[in-house]
Write a structure and sequence with these properties.
This protein has 265 residues and is of the alpha+beta class. It is built from 7 helices and 13 strands. The protein has one domain. 22% of the residues lie in helices and 29% in strands. Helix 4 runs antiparallel to helix 5.
Length: 265
């Protein structure tokens, strides 16, 4: 049987994954399992583009849709990443976040419009990862995340924010303006290899080593608060932009970024 399942995940399966609220305590409660999976990355010398992923979802999808990440360059700020439900037929999609399916295979459950590396290059790692996840019953706890390219540069840590008013999430480097830090949920969602000696290589090319690799961190933030009852569309236009149940005021740096994003997406 193939190690990687190539068909798109069904809406039923995707919508059964834990929400970020349900998954928030998994890294703490399953810390030993997480550490073991991180050490597998180093053991098999897997590309730094591959990391351990906290399995979670933010929104449901409908039949014929997939949850897709797309990079958007903001002229006045830099590049952010937006994730939203997208018709499968609308673009060429590449697996980004993977879980271990009921058939004990890796299957993408979220996708990217950017080309990603081919996990089949790391067959021994994939086989041991899948076996470990099944044995430890971690199918809805931890999976894999793949970045765009096997030779990525070290980038800044990122934070992913829910934007329910637009049914999407926005992942923003922490070097850019961020919303007010009053979120009830703030949890790391991906982790690199545990390699204390800093001897991890760039993929399988052992002639190209990085002396001191640095793992970047992505955390997911969510306010978990209701909309203000007395604030509708008119209030949003007058005072700012409604974002995750709060009004982002006109004078704030994050309002500038958010407004820039909504102009170009």
């Amino acid at each position: 049987m193939a190690l990687i399942q190539r068909d798109f995940v069904s809406a039923y399966t995707y919508n059964s994954l834990p929400t970020i609220q349900e998954a928030a305590n998994v890294p703490r409660d399953y810390a030993a399992d997480l550490g073991h999976l991180q050490r597998l990355l180093a053991k098999h010398n897997v590309s730094e583009s591959v990391s351990i992923r906290l399995i979670h979802r933010h929104y449901d999808i409908s039949n014929g849709e997939a949850m897709v990440f797309r990079e958007i360059a903001l002229p006045a700020h830099g590049t952010v990443e937006v994730m939203r439900a997208t018709p499968i037929a609308s673009a060429q999609l590449h697996g980004k976040n993977f879980f271990v399916s009921s058939t004990a295979q890796l299957q993408a459950y979220e996708y990217s419009t950017e080309t990603t590396i081919e996990l089949s290059e790391y067959g021994a790692f994939v086989a041991e990862f899948v076996e470990t996840v099944v044995e430890r019953k971690l199918q809805h706890k931890f999976g894999l995340k793949i970045n765009h390219d096997s030779k990525i540069e070290v980038k800044a840590d990122q934070k992913e924010f829910e934007f329910p008013e637009e049914q999407c999430t926005i992942t923003i480097p922490i070097t850019l303006p961020l919303p007010e830090a009053t979120h009830e949920i703030d949890v790391d969602t991906d982790w690199g290899a545990l390699d204390i000696e800093h001897n991890r290589k760039w993929g399988k090319d052992k002639s190209r080593s990085r002396p001191k690799p640095k793992s970047t961190r992505t955390s997911c933030c969510h306010a978990s608060i209701p909309y203000p009852e007395d604030c509708g569309e008119e209030c949003t236009k007058k005072d700012g932009i409604m974002f995750d149940g709060r009004i982002v005021q006109l004078v704030t740096p994050f309002h500038g970024l958010l407004n820039n994003l909504m102009e170009v997406w």
